[in-house]
Amino acid sequence: MKINIIGIEDDRFLRPLSLIANLFFEESDVALGEVETDADAKIEFSINYGKLTSVNASLTTREGAVFLADAEKEIPQGLSEKEAFKLLKNVVSRAYLTVLQDWTGIVQKWGILTGVRPTKLLHKKMHEGMEKQAAHHELKEQYLISDEKIELMQQIVDRQLAVIPDFYDLKNEVSIYIGIPFCPTKCAYCTFPAYAINGRQGSVDSFLGGLHHEIRQIGDWLKRNNIKITTVYYGGGTPTSITAEEMDMLYEEVQASFPDVEKIREVTVEAGRPDTITPEKLEVLKKWSIDRISINPQSYIQETLKAIGRHHTVEETVDKFHLAREMGMNNINMDLIIGLPGEGTKEFAHTLAESEKLMPESLTVHTLSFKRASEMTKNKNKYKVADRSEIEKMMGMAEAWTKQHNYVPYYLYRQKNILGNLENVGYSMPEQESLYNIIIMEEQQTIIGLGCGASSKFIDPETGVITQFSNPKDPKSYNDSFAEYADKKIEILDSLFKKALL
């Protein structure tokens, strides 16, 4: 879909206007300030600057149909150029979204938002002391978010504050992410650092040596500076891809290296691939008092699992769930994905019915996203997926099912190229929420990433400014440089917590 923008030539608008166009069209081509006769639509903007800046948008289709919209916003004097542009971008985006909605007949329930973490907006307003009604009004006016999505955001924010009463005071603690970059096979939709583990034992051994070094170095810094750990999350890849003995040694290293391990509020291990779970590995988890794990079916349709490269059976998922239960795992999460290839409402109804037989403590419902580097995106013509209408119906089915079974939504995030412009929602039974999932999504605390492909997100305790830092994604590069990356993280931590450490 080719869209020609007239009246705006500032290149800074190209990306946000392209992202909004992508909400409506699978492939959009937005051009600024050019008049092209082959464009599917021409949108002319008129901007009237003043204390109350107004924007008029006129969309004319190739066939000659015309759609009009306007928006306005107060842009106070004395703002920095960057702050003034941000406000102008908001008002332009609202007029732009409105004409695209009128043209296509598609209503974007998330309004102009294209970012990952919409609930951060509501948290910010509430933390500043704004009443709920006023906050909701601003979200609707400023971003064109629907009442339905605002209500979902409020449910989630309320739950998060109930689960973590000191939520806004976590800035002087940290959480730890430990990445294990190996899986039995790589799923077609995945872009995480994940390498098929078969035949890679040399890489695994070297990687684990580097990971142990990072754990010791970071643990020593935390102890010396009396910094507490809130949560620890083992992700990947699939952390249970390594052997039981390797898992045991890893958890022993964490126990010895990290401060006040008994006071850590939550430890989670992703055992997402059922084909990696064994009685021996579950015994190791029990030994180290880890009882929160994920066992992820994604779907209960065998043909789907084969199509997306998950080389395990539906029966294995169920059997491993029961095995984990029998061996004392009391907080099990399961992930489901809406919109997998070949699946519609009928198949998703079956998956929900199978979930009902297990009733995990939490259920994360993802909407399929065509991630740029995934196998599925590279070979899109091979993977037939449901249309927007059916995707929305499936999300509605998930919302109704979770409500019926007393699950509550507790965290939410969105992705680019997500089907139906929907969202991913974590549901849980009361008091079984993942604290780590809340913390990482709301960006209230520094998360230190250790291991191959692990990303650190450093959040300044004073300003809230975020600095990201990532370890190398492939095992060889990580093995060659883990010591250097550990030192760099400590350098950032010294700078970040310097006031707290005085």
Please, could you describe this protein's structure?
By secondary structure, this protein is α/β, with parallel strands linked by helices. Helix content is 41%, strand content 21%. It has helices at residues 14-24, 81-104, 119-127, 132-143, 147-163, 201-224, 244-257, 279-287, 302-307, 314-326, 345-358, 375-378, 388-404, 435-442, 475-496, 498-501, and strands at 2-6, 29-32, 41-48, 52-61, 66-74, 174-180, 182-183, 195-196, 229-236, 266-270, 292-294, 331-338, 362-367, 408-413, 424-428, 446-450, 455-459, 466-470. The protein has a 9-stranded mixed beta sheet with strand order 14-15-13-12-11-10-9-6-16, with helices on both faces. Strands 2-1-3-4-5 form a 5-stranded mixed beta sheet, covered by helices on one side. Helix 6 (201-224) packs parallel to helix 7, helix 6 runs parallel beside helix 15 and helix 11 (345-358) runs parallel beside helix 13. The chain starts with a strand and ends with a helix. The mean pLDDT is 90.
Strand content: 15-25%
Distance between the termini: 57 Å
Number of helices: 16
- How many strands appear in the DSSP assignment? 18
- Structural class computed from helices and strand pairing: alpha/beta
Helix amount: 40-55%
Low-confidence stretches: none
Number of discrete domains = 3
Question: How would you write the strand order of the largest sheet?
Answer: 14-15-13-12-11-10-9-6-16
Q: Name the average pLDDT.
A: 90
Question: How many whole angstroms does the radius of gyration measure?
Answer: 24 Å
Judging from the principal axes of the Cα atoms, what is the shape? Answer: globular
- Oligomerization status of the protein chains: single chain
**Main sheet overview:** 9 strands, mixed
